[in-house]
Amino acid sequence: MKLQQHHISTLFDQRYIDRGKAYFEEGLVEIISFQADKVTSRCAGTRLYRVELVMKDSQLTGQCTCPAFSDFGPCKHMAATAFAATVHTRDTYRPSAVYIARRDKFEALKRQLRRMTKAELIDIIAQHLGDDEELTNSILASEEERE
Fold first, then answer.
1. Is 117 in the same domain as 132?
2. What is the distance between the alpha carbons of residues 138 and 58, in angstroms, rounded to a whole number?
3. How confident is the model at residue 89 (pLDDT cuts 50, 70, 90)?
4. Mind listing the UniProt keywords for this protein, alphabetically (predicted)?
């Protein structure tokens, strides 16, 4: 993907450009896939988010799994990915040690969750439902989608 500054300026509000550039400079992006018309990454924010940027007819679009994207559209994680993609082909960008540690911790957590029984998982989730409105809403939304 051949990204240029005007693509970034067109898709993102300045506040997301500034925060995205900071995330990029902190090494909080990992490029997963780099193709002629699409870049996929993971970006560390409050959590690890999956980001996809697509170039179609010289227009940059995309999506992110963060809550801000679903509420407001193009986000800082997408902007960070765009900055990483601009230098990716020069092979000069690498995720930071901070990002790698967060990613590895997340992967270890997923492995642990896969080993747990359904009953154990339900108990853990139930213990935290009252403390985490986002988790509660996510569970309720997934139930609504199944109906």
1. yes
2. 35
3. low
4. Metal-binding, Zinc, Zinc-finger
Same domain, 67 and 127: no
Section 102-110 average pLDDT: 94
Assess whether pLDDT exceeds 70 at residue 107: yes
Here the tokens at position 133 are 């409105």
Cβ contacts of residue 103 below 8 Å, gap of 6+? 30, 42, 44, 48, 95
Note whether 77 and 111 are same-domain residues. no
Contacts of 31 (CB under 8 A, 6+ apart): 39, 40, 41, 81, 84, 85, 88, 93
26 and 75 in a common domain? yes
Number of Cβ atoms within 10 Å of the Cβ of 16 = 22
Last residue of some domain: 80, 96, 112? 96
Please give the residue range of the domain that contains residue 20: 5-96
Place of tokens 């970006």: 43
